[in-house]
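PT: before anyone asks, these are the final sequences, not the draft ones from last week. 761 residues across everything. Please model them as a single complex and drop the result in this thread when it's through.
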Amino acid sequence: MTPHINSDTDATQDLPGDLAIWIFIFAELVVFGIFFAAYAFARSTHVTLFNASQLTLNRDNGFANTLILVTSSYFVVRANQAIKAGHNKVCGHWLSGALGLGGGFLLLKLAEFHQDFVHGINLSTNLFYMFYLSLTFFHFMHVIMGMVILAVVAYKAYTGHYSAEHHTGVETGGSYWHMVDLVWIILFALVYVIH
Amino acid sequence: MNYQSQRVAKPYFIAALGLFVGQIVFGLIAGLQYLNGTFLFPALPFDVVHMSHTNLLIVWLLMAFMGAAYFIVPEEAQTELYSPKLALITFWVFLAAGAVTILSYLFVPYTQLAAMTGNAVLPTMGRGYLEQPLPIKVGIVLVALSLLFNVTMTLIKGRKTSINIILVGSLWGLALLFLPAFYFPQDTVKASFGWWWVVHGWVEGDWELILGALLGFILIKMTGVDREIIEKWIYIIIAMTLISGLVGIGHHYYYTGAPAYWIWLGSIFSALEPIPFMLLIAFSFKTLLQRRREHPNKAAMLWAMGTPIMAFLGAGLWGFMITLAPVQYYIHGTQFTAAHGHLAFFGAYAMIALAIISYAMPLLRGRTANSMVAQRWEMTGFWFMTLSMIGITLALTGAGIVTLFLQRAAEDPMGFMQVQDKARVFFWIREFFGVSFFTGLLIYLRSFFFAGEYEYANEMKQALSK
Amino acid sequence: MKSSHTVLLDNGLKHPASGTRRATLTWLILLGLTTLSFRLSTAVSGSVLMFTVLGLTLIKGHLVTNEFMGLRHVRWVWRLVMAIYLLSVGSIIAFAYLSA
Ligand code: HEM
Ligand code: HEM
Ligand SMILES: [Fe+2]
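LR: through. Structure below.
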């Protein structure tokens, strides 16, 4: 086996990006995990209500949004690879792409929220909608937060702050964004698909 | 101490400790009244004693926070305070307002006080912790504005560190969150919203940021660990505090007339409120382990390390035990709540106040650290007070459990006063630990009356000869 | 399998193209699995749906954390922590659905 030349590919290395963001990521995962568990247990005592209400969701929208977030995550991976090869501009472009997709996600989700609003659906409508609205809104806020971080990273990439050797910021921002994606993947399955 | 103007912190700290003594004396009297209902009656009824105990608590904590701000902001900004004179005037105004408030509680019947101070015009009096008459509440706002003006101007003209921005920002938050105290509608549901926005907003939101900033400052100074690392932790802790605490306010909305979804949202998010306290423990101990120097002020370090642990126990653990809706259904407003209130307030806020005082006072008196004799007294006080508070907490928890089984969850619920009788032994235990707490406080205060500084050479010799 | 794995691992930087190919493949699999879950939601129901979609979701979660977040390059403890997280969320959900 060839000796490890680059520490980035060493299987014993530390987490990519800042350790602090990982502590935050795990804390956030716990938060969402508890929320998901509460949903699942609340459903177990209101199965018919949940099933009936779930049918009214715009599943196409949820599906499209999953594809969007997964793709944006992929773009972020490409941005990371670009900066590791020392291409600041390319990295910036991939991040801008991811930001554009994030914006698309927000628009689609807003359209969904708007539909709910038009139909007079709110937190008090029933237990399912309470969970559906609060879970997706909570995630919505995380998408915004992730986009703010990505925007800062993209700006820094364009202005040449990073290099092949020093790019912790890209990894840090990217890791958070992947977490936002990961949580949505579970949320999509739980709230939109499984019934 | 690097800037002359930091000196204004000293009267704030001294006054804070004086008011702390007052708070505990009232606590002991209230505890005695639990055992003998007519003790000091009618001169000093329980409600007045209770109100004085809790208001003094808030006032001394605010005094300490203000002192901390006047001490830290110039140091971090690397410039003199914008106006030391204004800070000093503000101190006397605040102290006078505090004294007038307590004296008026003691000597004027509360309803009469309300009538005299325009409560009919803008009703604000009566809710716990916010009992102050209207003019005093307005005074508190003015004092806060003066503080904010002073520290913000200092921040603007000096270095802008994260610690400073968080500290000044959270002081703004503290002032803004006091404003719902002026909102006291007839509707009891809305009135309780306004009350919790202040109380919960402070202790489970804004004050946690102050706690983070103060602890971060102390640890930067005492361990020599990179500011950058410490600041990152503080940001994460703040983020988790806000994520859990904002919606977590729902744990006060159950069964109050607020929308039913709060039962879920309040339970889920407040169940997460222990997380920032756990992170606080992880952060402080990780920083301690990475320390690059041994600071001679061991006592300050003890307070600083004790704070996250006790805060976690009081807020995180005891808070969690009563926070889920099905539990609240049975335990709301029992002595369990008082147990949690005591350990959380002491562990988080009294201890961080004593930590910053412990770090800053020697410096304000021209020493790096107190002599080892003084520090030994201080640390003895630490253990006395901390262990006694745990005793008080356990006693009240016991009383809460008695209420739970004999009244709240009983087939055939007992009357309120009968239950109080059954829990009497716990009230005795509480009073016992109250006295021992007070002893600890006196031991602690004794530590201020030793002359002399920490002497490296001397301590070294002693350590080697052992 | 083992050897191709290490080649990819070791050459992440020296041959960026292979890292890119791996990421692209992961992305396409994720799109595929998402589509599959979506289609299944109308095709089947009940615990069959629950178990398959939950399984697919865990695989997706594993791909995102291991490939995109790069956990496969780091110390095994972190992979373990993440695996425990995904598995516990998955089993809590499964348990709650079965107990309905
Ligand atoms: C730093 C130390 C202390 C803190 C932070 C503190 C805090 C508090 C708080 C927040 C309350 C209101 C609780 C509620 O309404 O749920 C309270 C009430 C009370 N405290 Fe303390 N306290 C302290 C020390 C003491 C001590 C040493 C005693 C002595 C026995 C004491 C006795 C009482 C009593 C009797 C009440 C009234 C409880 C009631 O309303 O039934 N406290 N205290
Ligand atoms: C340092 C932070 C905290 C302090 C100083 C604090 C203090 C208090 C006090 C004094 C009360 C009684 C209010 C009253 O009715 O007079 C209270 C109530 C309550 N606290 Fe905290 N608390 C803190 C953090 C927490 C946390 C983190 C949780 C949840 C995990 C929590 C859960 C509760 C609940 C559920 C109540 C209502 C109890 C009832 O209705 O009887 N608290 N808190
Ligand atoms: Fe609260």
